[in-house]
Amino acid sequence: MPKPYHHGDLYSSLINEADNILREEGIEALSIRRLAQQIGVSRTALYHHFKDKNDLLCALAESGFRQQREALETIIEKGTSRTTFEEYVKSYIAFATTNQHLYDLMYGQLIWQNQLQTDSLKSTSKSTFKRWISWVGELQNAKILDQGNSALRVGQACWASLHGFARLVIDGIYINQSEIEGMTTQISNMLQSHDRQ
C-alpha cells in the first residue's frame, strides 16, 4: 500500500522509504520503480530527484554521512575530553553496526572502488571527515590523542581502527554484546595518549 507523504517533502519520503527497503530487503530489492510504487508517485517524479539507481544509492550514503556528522557535532558540543572521545568511539561503532545497510554504501566498494560517487556525496563525505580531523586536532591539543603526528595522520589511524572493528562486528566475527562493549572500550583506551603531563 502506498505511503502518504506531505507535499513538498517528497525527497525526504523517498530517502526514508529507500532506507527501509535497503535495511529490510537488501540492495537488490531497491529500484526506482519499486520506490515509486511504495510512495505512490510516478517514476517521472522520482527522476526529478535521482537520475538512476546509482544516484539513489549515493543519496542514501550521503544521508549516512550526514547522520555521522550530526552525531559528531552533538558529542563535540559536550566538550573535548577523554569521556567525550570514548563516547564518540562508542557512537561510531553503534552507528555502523545498527545501520549496516548504510555503512556498506558509505564505505563499501560498490560506490567508491567503482568510481560511481556523485559530486554531492564526495562533498558531504569530505566535509564530515574534515570535521573529524579538526576535532582530532583539538583532542591532540588537550593531550588526549597522540601529539607526535599530524591531526590528519592520527585521525586516519583512529578511523582505520574504528572501521576495522566495525567491519569485524558487521561480518559476524564478534556477536556477543558484552564482548563488543569491552572491545569498544579497549579500542578507545588504546587510541588515547597516556601522556597526561
UniProtKB/TrEMBL annotation:
PROSITE patterns referenced in this protein's UniProt entry, alphabetically? HTH_TETR_1, HTH_TETR_2
* Species in which this protein is naturally found: Marinomonas mediterranea (strain ATCC 700492 / JCM 21426 / NBRC 103028 / MMB-1)
* HTH tetR-type domain boundaries: 8-68
What is the protein's name according to its record?
Answer: Regulatory protein TetR
List the Gene Ontology MF annotations in alphabetical order: DNA-binding transcription factor activity; transcription cis-regulatory region binding
A Pfam family it matches: TetR_N
Q: Which keywords annotate this record? A: DNA-binding, Transcription, Transcription regulation
List the SUPFAM superfamilies. Answer: Homeodomain-like (SSF46689), Tetracyclin repressor-like, C-terminal domain (SSF48498)
The residue ranges marked as DNA-binding region are 31-50
